[in-house]
Amino acid sequence: MAYLDPETSKRLVPIGRFMGEKFTGAHWNELGFLTGSDGLVQGHGRLLRSLSFGDDDYPEACLAVLGSIVRNDPANLKIVEDYIADTFEEVGRNVSTKPGIGATIRFTPSVFEVPVEPLDSKMIAVMMPFGPGFTPIYETIKRACSDTNWFYARRADDIWEHTTVIQDVFSLIFRSHAVICDYTGRNPNVFYEAGIAHTLGKTVIPITQSAADVPFDVSHHRYLSYHPNGEGLAALGQKLTDRLIALDPVNAAYF
After folding, report:
1. Tens digits of per-residue pLDDT, 178-212?
2. Residue 251 has pLDDT above 60, yes or no
């Protein structure tokens, strides 16, 4: 049976707990067919039986079967996450990088319009100061996304869909899978945009040329430092590619 890496195992634990609280037999049967694991679901000695009788070992059986499903095919993890997000989403769309497992919030923006366009699991939004000095950095980010063979990068000046720039920025962040923010120079717009991304539940990948440009309020989040020369940008590109693959290992680098 395939090995589960620590990162995948950490993702499975809260999903298993959620299944133990919310899943019925019908949910397991549907998920079994979606993942090609109906034999696992039906063949497990305790899963459906302990569910039927309300036994205490049902949560344990949920995690065991979930682990077997993902071990059989790592691509099943995304199928499981998408199934849960689609099946148990009560109102609206889950726009966060991770599926809506656990406590969630609902809010209606008063400044922005909620985009009607679908979310794009391949798009990485890039927030950085504008100007020719940042062109090489943006080109590095685009190459890093391309090197995953899955993601691609977009910046607000790549699009013009609304009459106000900030609405384009919000739409870009809203529809993206994750957001790269360059804190270099302490640009207030970038910090505002990072706050939007955090509120929407997006994974934010901070980068900076100087640790002094990372404010105390966000310094506890890990960030990537880089030098804006050829060697420094090459190193940044590799770090970003690795980080992005870790975000979505099933899709990135395998397509």
Report:
1. 999 999 999 999 999 999 999 999 999 999 999 99
2. yes
